[in-house]
User: What shape does this take?
Amino acid sequence: MKRLQLTAALLAGMCLLASCGESNKMDCAVEDNYTMQSNEAKADYSENSYESADEADERAYSMDAEAADYTQAEAKAINTQMLVYSCEMSIDVMEFDDSVDKLHDLISKYKGFIESETYSDGGNTSQWKYNDEQKWKTLSTLIRIPSASYDDFCKDAEGVGDIRRKNASVQNLSTEYSDLRTTLKIYEAKEKRYIDLLADMKSESEAISVEKELTNIQVEIARIKTRMNNIENDVAYSYINLTVNEVREYTAEPVIEKTDTFGQRLMNTVSKTWHGFLEFLEGLLFFLIRVLPYLLLLALLLFPINRIRKAIKKKRAARDAAWYQAQMNAQMNAQMNAQAAGPDTAANTVSETAETPQENDHADES
Assistant: This one.
Protein backbone atom coordinates (compact mmCIF):
# COMPACT_ATOMS: atom_id res chain seq x y z
CA MET A 1 0.00 0.00 0.00
CA LYS A 2 2.80 2.38 0.91
CA ARG A 3 4.58 1.53 -2.32
CA LEU A 4 1.51 2.57 -4.37
CA GLN A 5 1.29 5.83 -2.44
CA LEU A 6 4.92 6.59 -3.15
CA THR A 7 4.38 5.86 -6.83
CA ALA A 8 1.37 8.22 -6.96
CA ALA A 9 3.39 10.95 -5.25
CA LEU A 10 6.24 10.64 -7.76
CA LEU A 11 3.80 10.79 -10.72
CA ALA A 12 2.22 13.91 -9.24
CA GLY A 13 5.70 15.42 -8.99
CA MET A 14 6.32 14.77 -12.65
CA CYS A 15 3.02 16.51 -13.58
CA LEU A 16 3.88 19.50 -11.40
CA LEU A 17 7.38 19.81 -12.84
CA ALA A 18 5.88 19.94 -16.36
CA SER A 19 3.81 22.99 -15.38
CA CYS A 20 6.67 24.86 -13.69
CA GLY A 21 7.68 26.52 -16.97
CA GLU A 22 4.37 28.47 -17.02
CA SER A 23 4.26 29.56 -13.34
CA ASN A 24 6.64 31.78 -11.42
CA LYS A 25 9.66 30.66 -9.42
CA MET A 26 7.80 30.68 -6.14
CA ASP A 27 5.09 28.25 -7.41
CA CYS A 28 7.70 25.88 -8.82
CA ALA A 29 9.55 25.80 -5.51
CA VAL A 30 6.34 25.10 -3.56
CA GLU A 31 5.25 22.36 -6.00
CA ASP A 32 8.66 20.71 -5.73
CA ASN A 33 8.35 20.90 -1.96
CA TYR A 34 5.00 19.09 -1.87
CA THR A 35 5.93 16.61 -4.56
CA MET A 36 8.69 15.12 -2.40
CA GLN A 37 6.46 14.66 0.66
CA SER A 38 4.54 11.50 1.55
CA ASN A 39 0.74 11.38 1.08
CA GLU A 40 0.34 10.27 4.69
CA ALA A 41 2.41 13.14 6.20
CA LYS A 42 0.85 16.47 7.04
CA ALA A 43 1.92 19.50 4.99
CA ASP A 44 4.59 21.67 6.49
CA TYR A 45 5.52 24.57 4.21
CA SER A 46 8.60 25.87 6.01
CA GLU A 47 12.08 25.62 4.60
CA ASN A 48 12.76 22.53 6.81
CA SER A 49 10.07 20.50 4.96
CA TYR A 50 12.27 19.58 2.00
CA GLU A 51 13.36 15.95 1.76
CA SER A 52 16.99 14.99 1.56
CA ALA A 53 18.69 13.78 -1.60
CA ASP A 54 18.93 10.25 -0.12
CA GLU A 55 15.16 10.09 0.38
CA ALA A 56 14.61 11.25 -3.20
CA ASP A 57 16.95 8.53 -4.42
CA GLU A 58 15.02 5.96 -2.39
CA ARG A 59 11.77 7.09 -3.99
CA ALA A 60 13.26 6.82 -7.49
CA TYR A 61 14.56 3.35 -6.68
CA SER A 62 11.11 2.25 -5.43
CA MET A 63 9.57 3.60 -8.66
CA ASP A 64 11.99 1.55 -10.71
CA ALA A 65 11.10 -1.50 -8.66
CA GLU A 66 7.40 -0.92 -9.34
CA ALA A 67 8.09 -0.67 -13.08
CA ALA A 68 10.06 -3.90 -12.90
CA ASP A 69 7.12 -5.66 -11.24
CA TYR A 70 4.91 -4.89 -14.28
CA THR A 71 7.36 -6.52 -16.67
CA GLN A 72 5.75 -9.81 -17.70
CA ALA A 73 7.21 -12.65 -19.70
CA GLU A 74 3.82 -14.12 -20.59
CA ALA A 75 0.57 -12.47 -21.66
CA LYS A 76 -1.93 -12.18 -18.81
CA ALA A 77 -5.66 -12.86 -19.12
CA ILE A 78 -7.88 -10.01 -20.36
CA ASN A 79 -9.60 -8.08 -17.58
CA THR A 80 -13.36 -8.54 -18.12
CA GLN A 81 -14.62 -6.22 -15.37
CA MET A 82 -15.72 -3.28 -17.53
CA LEU A 83 -17.43 -4.74 -20.63
CA VAL A 84 -20.05 -2.87 -22.69
CA TYR A 85 -22.42 -5.12 -24.64
CA SER A 86 -24.27 -3.87 -27.71
CA CYS A 87 -26.45 -5.54 -30.32
CA GLU A 88 -28.23 -4.53 -33.53
CA MET A 89 -31.28 -6.58 -34.51
CA SER A 90 -33.83 -6.40 -37.33
CA ILE A 91 -37.10 -8.32 -36.96
CA ASP A 92 -39.95 -8.81 -39.46
CA VAL A 93 -43.47 -9.18 -38.04
CA MET A 94 -46.92 -9.67 -39.57
CA GLU A 95 -48.98 -8.32 -36.64
CA PHE A 96 -47.13 -5.06 -36.05
CA ASP A 97 -49.12 -3.57 -33.17
CA ASP A 98 -49.24 -6.83 -31.20
CA SER A 99 -45.50 -7.36 -31.70
CA VAL A 100 -44.71 -3.85 -30.45
CA ASP A 101 -46.82 -4.51 -27.34
CA LYS A 102 -44.91 -7.75 -26.70
CA LEU A 103 -41.63 -5.87 -27.07
CA HIS A 104 -42.70 -3.27 -24.50
CA ASP A 105 -43.71 -6.07 -22.12
CA LEU A 106 -40.24 -7.60 -22.46
CA ILE A 107 -38.61 -4.27 -21.66
CA SER A 108 -40.71 -3.98 -18.51
CA LYS A 109 -40.02 -7.59 -17.60
CA TYR A 110 -36.24 -7.13 -17.67
CA LYS A 111 -36.41 -3.66 -16.02
CA GLY A 112 -35.00 -1.82 -19.01
CA PHE A 113 -35.97 1.44 -20.66
CA ILE A 114 -36.22 2.99 -24.11
CA GLU A 115 -33.57 5.63 -24.75
CA SER A 116 -34.86 6.70 -28.20
CA GLU A 117 -37.62 5.59 -30.53
CA THR A 118 -38.67 6.38 -34.12
CA TYR A 119 -41.99 5.23 -35.62
CA SER A 120 -43.22 5.43 -39.22
CA ASP A 121 -46.53 4.23 -40.65
CA GLY A 122 -45.08 3.85 -44.15
CA GLY A 123 -46.93 6.79 -45.74
CA ASN A 124 -45.02 9.49 -47.57
CA THR A 125 -45.10 13.23 -46.91
CA SER A 126 -47.80 14.07 -49.48
CA GLN A 127 -51.36 15.13 -48.62
CA TRP A 128 -52.92 11.92 -49.93
CA LYS A 129 -54.61 9.47 -47.59
CA TYR A 130 -53.57 5.84 -48.02
CA ASN A 131 -55.31 2.73 -46.80
CA ASP A 132 -53.63 0.24 -44.49
CA GLU A 133 -52.71 -2.15 -47.31
CA GLN A 134 -50.53 0.54 -48.89
CA LYS A 135 -48.60 1.26 -45.70
CA TRP A 136 -45.62 -0.59 -44.21
CA LYS A 137 -45.03 0.28 -40.56
CA THR A 138 -41.53 0.49 -39.08
CA LEU A 139 -40.25 1.00 -35.53
CA SER A 140 -36.60 1.78 -34.72
CA THR A 141 -35.76 1.91 -31.02
CA LEU A 142 -32.66 2.02 -28.82
CA ILE A 143 -33.24 -0.10 -25.72
CA ARG A 144 -31.11 -0.15 -22.55
CA ILE A 145 -31.25 -3.44 -20.66
CA PRO A 146 -29.36 -4.40 -17.47
CA SER A 147 -26.26 -6.28 -18.55
CA ALA A 148 -27.16 -9.27 -16.36
CA SER A 149 -30.32 -9.77 -18.47
CA TYR A 150 -28.77 -8.92 -21.85
CA ASP A 151 -28.62 -12.46 -23.26
CA ASP A 152 -32.09 -13.42 -22.00
CA PHE A 153 -33.66 -10.28 -23.48
CA CYS A 154 -32.05 -10.86 -26.89
CA LYS A 155 -33.35 -14.44 -26.99
CA ASP A 156 -36.89 -13.37 -26.08
CA ALA A 157 -36.78 -10.47 -28.57
CA GLU A 158 -35.88 -12.87 -31.36
CA GLY A 159 -39.12 -14.77 -30.62
CA VAL A 160 -41.28 -11.68 -31.24
CA GLY A 161 -40.97 -12.11 -35.02
CA ASP A 162 -38.75 -13.40 -37.79
CA ILE A 163 -35.22 -12.18 -37.11
CA ARG A 164 -33.53 -11.02 -40.33
CA ARG A 165 -30.27 -9.53 -39.08
CA LYS A 166 -28.25 -9.53 -35.86
CA ASN A 167 -24.87 -7.97 -35.09
CA ALA A 168 -23.50 -8.21 -31.53
CA SER A 169 -20.29 -6.71 -30.17
CA VAL A 170 -18.45 -6.24 -26.85
CA GLN A 171 -16.22 -3.28 -25.96
CA ASN A 172 -13.68 -3.70 -23.16
CA LEU A 173 -13.19 -0.43 -21.23
CA SER A 174 -11.25 -1.91 -18.31
CA THR A 175 -7.95 -0.32 -19.28
CA GLU A 176 -9.46 3.12 -19.81
CA TYR A 177 -11.38 2.93 -16.54
CA SER A 178 -8.25 1.87 -14.63
CA ASP A 179 -6.25 4.73 -16.13
CA LEU A 180 -9.00 7.20 -15.24
CA ARG A 181 -9.10 5.94 -11.67
CA THR A 182 -5.33 6.29 -11.27
CA THR A 183 -5.35 9.76 -12.82
CA LEU A 184 -8.22 10.77 -10.53
CA LYS A 185 -6.24 9.81 -7.44
CA ILE A 186 -3.29 11.89 -8.61
CA TYR A 187 -5.46 14.95 -9.27
CA GLU A 188 -7.32 14.56 -5.97
CA ALA A 189 -4.01 14.43 -4.08
CA LYS A 190 -2.84 17.48 -5.98
CA GLU A 191 -6.12 19.25 -5.21
CA LYS A 192 -5.69 18.58 -1.46
CA ARG A 193 -2.15 20.00 -1.47
CA TYR A 194 -3.28 23.16 -3.27
CA ILE A 195 -6.20 23.62 -0.84
CA ASP A 196 -3.83 23.32 2.12
CA LEU A 197 -1.38 25.65 0.44
CA LEU A 198 -4.09 28.21 -0.25
CA ALA A 199 -5.13 28.22 3.42
CA ASP A 200 -1.63 29.34 4.48
CA MET A 201 -1.17 31.92 1.71
CA LYS A 202 -0.68 35.53 2.88
CA SER A 203 0.18 37.14 -0.42
CA GLU A 204 -2.87 38.03 -2.51
CA SER A 205 -1.06 37.68 -5.84
CA GLU A 206 0.26 34.25 -4.88
CA ALA A 207 -3.20 33.21 -3.67
CA ILE A 208 -4.75 34.21 -7.02
CA SER A 209 -2.17 32.13 -8.88
CA VAL A 210 -2.83 29.11 -6.67
CA GLU A 211 -6.61 29.54 -7.01
CA LYS A 212 -6.29 29.55 -10.79
CA GLU A 213 -4.30 26.33 -10.78
CA LEU A 214 -6.72 24.79 -8.27
CA THR A 215 -9.69 25.62 -10.51
CA ASN A 216 -8.04 23.89 -13.48
CA ILE A 217 -7.42 20.81 -11.33
CA GLN A 218 -11.05 20.71 -10.13
CA VAL A 219 -12.34 21.04 -13.70
CA GLU A 220 -10.16 18.12 -14.76
CA ILE A 221 -11.41 16.07 -11.79
CA ALA A 222 -15.01 16.75 -12.81
CA ARG A 223 -14.28 15.68 -16.40
CA ILE A 224 -12.66 12.43 -15.25
CA LYS A 225 -15.55 11.64 -12.91
CA THR A 226 -18.08 12.27 -15.69
CA ARG A 227 -16.31 9.87 -18.01
CA MET A 228 -16.07 7.25 -15.27
CA ASN A 229 -19.81 7.58 -14.57
CA ASN A 230 -20.60 7.17 -18.27
CA ILE A 231 -18.49 4.01 -18.43
CA GLU A 232 -20.19 2.64 -15.32
CA ASN A 233 -23.64 3.32 -16.81
CA ASP A 234 -22.68 1.70 -20.13
CA VAL A 235 -21.39 -1.34 -18.28
CA ALA A 236 -24.52 -1.57 -16.14
CA TYR A 237 -26.98 -1.16 -19.06
CA SER A 238 -26.33 -2.80 -22.43
CA TYR A 239 -27.40 -1.36 -25.79
CA ILE A 240 -29.95 -3.09 -28.07
CA ASN A 241 -30.71 -1.22 -31.30
CA LEU A 242 -33.88 -2.98 -32.50
CA THR A 243 -35.77 -2.43 -35.76
CA VAL A 244 -39.25 -3.91 -36.25
CA ASN A 245 -40.55 -4.10 -39.85
CA GLU A 246 -44.12 -4.91 -40.85
CA VAL A 247 -44.40 -7.57 -43.58
CA ARG A 248 -47.21 -9.52 -45.23
CA GLU A 249 -47.39 -13.07 -46.38
CA TYR A 250 -46.59 -13.53 -50.04
CA THR A 251 -49.13 -15.42 -52.16
CA ALA A 252 -48.09 -16.42 -55.65
CA GLU A 253 -50.76 -15.73 -58.30
CA PRO A 254 -51.56 -18.67 -60.63
CA VAL A 255 -50.16 -18.34 -64.13
CA ILE A 256 -52.89 -18.47 -66.79
CA GLU A 257 -51.79 -19.39 -70.28
CA LYS A 258 -53.51 -17.26 -72.90
CA THR A 259 -54.08 -18.26 -76.53
CA ASP A 260 -54.79 -14.99 -78.35
CA THR A 261 -56.52 -15.12 -81.74
CA PHE A 262 -55.93 -12.70 -84.61
CA GLY A 263 -59.00 -10.67 -83.69
CA GLN A 264 -57.86 -10.38 -80.06
CA ARG A 265 -54.38 -9.28 -81.07
CA LEU A 266 -55.90 -6.76 -83.50
CA MET A 267 -58.18 -5.33 -80.82
CA ASN A 268 -55.30 -5.17 -78.37
CA THR A 269 -53.16 -3.31 -80.90
CA VAL A 270 -55.94 -0.84 -81.70
CA SER A 271 -56.64 -0.35 -78.02
CA LYS A 272 -52.97 0.26 -77.18
CA THR A 273 -52.63 2.65 -80.13
CA TRP A 274 -55.72 4.61 -79.10
CA HIS A 275 -54.56 4.82 -75.49
CA GLY A 276 -51.14 5.93 -76.67
CA PHE A 277 -52.74 8.65 -78.83
CA LEU A 278 -54.83 9.83 -75.90
CA GLU A 279 -51.74 9.95 -73.69
CA PHE A 280 -50.00 12.00 -76.41
CA LEU A 281 -52.91 14.48 -76.53
CA GLU A 282 -52.96 14.61 -72.76
CA GLY A 283 -49.24 15.31 -72.62
CA LEU A 284 -49.57 17.98 -75.33
CA LEU A 285 -52.42 19.65 -73.45
CA PHE A 286 -50.45 19.69 -70.24
CA PHE A 287 -47.44 21.07 -72.13
CA LEU A 288 -49.52 23.90 -73.58
CA ILE A 289 -50.91 24.68 -70.14
CA ARG A 290 -47.38 24.86 -68.73
CA VAL A 291 -46.04 27.15 -71.52
CA LEU A 292 -49.22 29.31 -71.83
CA PRO A 293 -48.04 31.93 -69.25
CA TYR A 294 -44.75 32.32 -71.11
CA LEU A 295 -46.56 32.65 -74.46
CA LEU A 296 -48.81 35.37 -73.01
CA LEU A 297 -45.79 37.21 -71.68
CA LEU A 298 -44.08 36.98 -75.07
CA ALA A 299 -47.24 38.30 -76.79
CA LEU A 300 -47.39 41.27 -74.42
CA LEU A 301 -43.78 42.08 -75.26
CA LEU A 302 -44.26 41.74 -79.06
CA PHE A 303 -47.57 43.64 -79.24
CA PRO A 304 -46.18 47.19 -78.73
CA ILE A 305 -43.21 46.42 -80.99
CA ASN A 306 -45.61 45.34 -83.79
CA ARG A 307 -47.75 48.46 -83.29
CA ILE A 308 -44.69 50.68 -83.59
CA ARG A 309 -43.58 48.91 -86.78
CA LYS A 310 -47.05 49.34 -88.33
CA ALA A 311 -47.13 53.02 -87.42
CA ILE A 312 -43.73 53.60 -89.01
CA LYS A 313 -44.76 51.73 -92.16
CA LYS A 314 -48.03 53.67 -92.38
CA LYS A 315 -46.25 56.97 -91.97
CA ARG A 316 -43.75 56.06 -94.67
CA ALA A 317 -46.54 55.04 -97.09
CA ALA A 318 -48.38 58.32 -96.49
CA ARG A 319 -45.21 60.27 -97.18
CA ASP A 320 -44.55 58.35 -100.42
CA ALA A 321 -48.16 58.87 -101.57
CA ALA A 322 -47.94 62.64 -100.91
CA TRP A 323 -44.67 62.86 -102.80
CA TYR A 324 -46.13 60.94 -105.73
CA GLN A 325 -49.23 63.14 -105.81
CA ALA A 326 -47.06 66.27 -105.73
CA GLN A 327 -45.03 64.97 -108.67
CA MET A 328 -48.15 64.21 -110.67
CA ASN A 329 -49.57 67.67 -109.98
CA ALA A 330 -46.31 69.34 -110.94
CA GLN A 331 -46.14 67.38 -114.19
CA MET A 332 -49.71 68.22 -115.10
CA ASN A 333 -49.15 71.93 -114.40
CA ALA A 334 -45.99 71.89 -116.47
CA GLN A 335 -47.77 70.29 -119.41
CA MET A 336 -50.62 72.77 -119.20
CA ASN A 337 -48.21 75.71 -119.14
CA ALA A 338 -46.24 74.26 -122.05
CA GLN A 339 -49.33 73.89 -124.22
CA ALA A 340 -50.23 77.46 -123.57
CA ALA A 341 -46.69 78.74 -124.38
CA GLY A 342 -46.14 76.84 -127.63
CA PRO A 343 -44.76 73.58 -129.09
CA ASP A 344 -41.09 74.29 -128.48
CA THR A 345 -41.60 75.35 -124.93
CA ALA A 346 -43.77 72.31 -124.31
CA ALA A 347 -41.00 69.96 -125.49
CA ASN A 348 -38.44 71.60 -123.24
CA THR A 349 -40.82 71.54 -120.31
CA VAL A 350 -41.60 67.85 -120.84
CA SER A 351 -37.90 66.99 -120.89
CA GLU A 352 -37.27 68.97 -117.68
CA THR A 353 -40.26 67.42 -115.99
CA ALA A 354 -39.09 63.93 -117.01
CA GLU A 355 -35.82 64.51 -115.19
CA THR A 356 -37.49 65.55 -111.98
CA PRO A 357 -38.37 62.02 -110.70
CA GLN A 358 -34.73 60.91 -111.14
CA GLU A 359 -33.52 63.87 -109.17
CA ASN A 360 -36.05 63.09 -106.47
CA ASP A 361 -34.92 59.48 -106.47
CA HIS A 362 -31.35 60.58 -105.96
CA ALA A 363 -32.49 62.86 -103.18
CA ASP A 364 -34.33 59.97 -101.50
CA GLU A 365 -31.32 57.70 -101.81
CA SER A 366 -29.12 60.31 -100.18
About this structure: The longest helix spans residues 262-341. The longest strand covers residues 83-93. Residues 153 and 239 are 11 Å apart (CA to CA). The radius of gyration is 51 Å.
